[in-house]
Amino acid sequence: MIWCVEDDVSIRDIEVYALQSMGFEARGFENGNVFWKELQKEKPELVVLDIMLPGMDGIQLLKKMRESRAFQDIPVVMATAKGEEYDKIQGLDLGADYYLTKPFGVMELVSCIKAVLRRCQTKKEEHLLRAGNLVLNAEEHTVTADGAGISLTFKEFEILRLFLSHPGIAYTRDQLFNTIWGMDYVGETRTVDMHIRTLRQKLGCYGELIKTVRGVGYRLEAKE
User: Fold this and answer.
1) Which of 44-58, 75-89, 115-129 has the highest mean pLDDT?
2) What is the CATH topology of the domain spanning 2-125?
3) Could you give the CA distance from residue 66 to residue 105 in angstroms, rounded to a whole number?
4) What is the model's pLDDT at position 80?
5) Above 70 in pLDDT, residue 185?
6) pLDDT at residue 199, as a whole number
7) How far apart are CA 196 and CA 17, in angstroms?
């Protein structure tokens, strides 16, 4: 869902119509107050935000969004009047993802939105590590296998993260021990074997991806 915040009804209707005609779900808002109220109920995929608005203007709204943990990751495209260089700089400094200078064409708007969505999606996926349908989300600290959540201890999570970050690389028990537990940890490397065993069990069929390398240690088998 793309939200367009624009007080000029003719421009707003054109934006919403253009986006809908290109296959997007789109919704228009006539001012910042209404937009902010609806934002508490639903999160859009992207916001096209005009700077000159009655009540809360676009800069104030952008600042509030970037200061809010709930809304700070929503991509924002700012619409600025021609020649308002200060507004552009201020918007980008506050975290706008792109800006369009009025008047702009509908195809320019659609192209811009597609580009920002692609860029933001790529950024989001940097937090995801995969081996087939085994997915580790480093940002949310979650692991799923075929869509089902798997509960791991902190050390098990870190072992899996290391393996998924470097598929095909064999690690000795000492390397795993020192990397995951730290050099100052007092214990024995058989601790690694115990954690590998429980990790394999929790991963179910995906546990078979963690291979024992004789005379070396363990590696995660690369899988598309």
Assistant:
1) 44-58
2) Rossmann fold (3.40.50)
3) 27
4) 84
5) no
6) 96
7) 55
**Phi–psi pair at 14, nearest 5 degrees:** -65, -45
Going by DSSP bridges, is the β-strand pair 171-172/217-220 parallel, antiparallel, or unpaired?
A: antiparallel
CB neighbours of residue 49 within 10 Å: 27
For 20-56, the pLDDT digits (tens) are 999 999 999 999 999 999 999 999 999 999 998 988 8
Closest listed residue to residue 150, CA positions, set 133, 125, 170, 167:
133
So what CATH class is 128-220? mainly alpha
CA distance readout (Å), 48 to 19, 80, 152, 194: 11, 11, 40, 52
* Structural domain boundaries in the chain: 2-125, 128-220
Sheet holding 26-29, edge to edge: 26-29, 2-5, 46-50, 76-80, 98-101
Query: What does residue 40 show for φ and ψ, rounded to 5 degrees?
Result: -70, -15
Q: What tokens does 189 get?
A: 């490397």
Residue type present at position 141: H
Q: How far, in Å, CA of 153 to CA of 165, rounded?
A: 18
Q: Is 153 helix (H, G, I), strand (E, B) or coil?
A: coil
pLDDT band of residue 151 (cuts 50, 70, 90) is very high
Q: What is the mean pLDDT of the chain?
A: 88
Neighbours of 180 (CB within 10 A): 20
- Let me know: does 29 contact 35? Beta carbons within 8 Å: yes
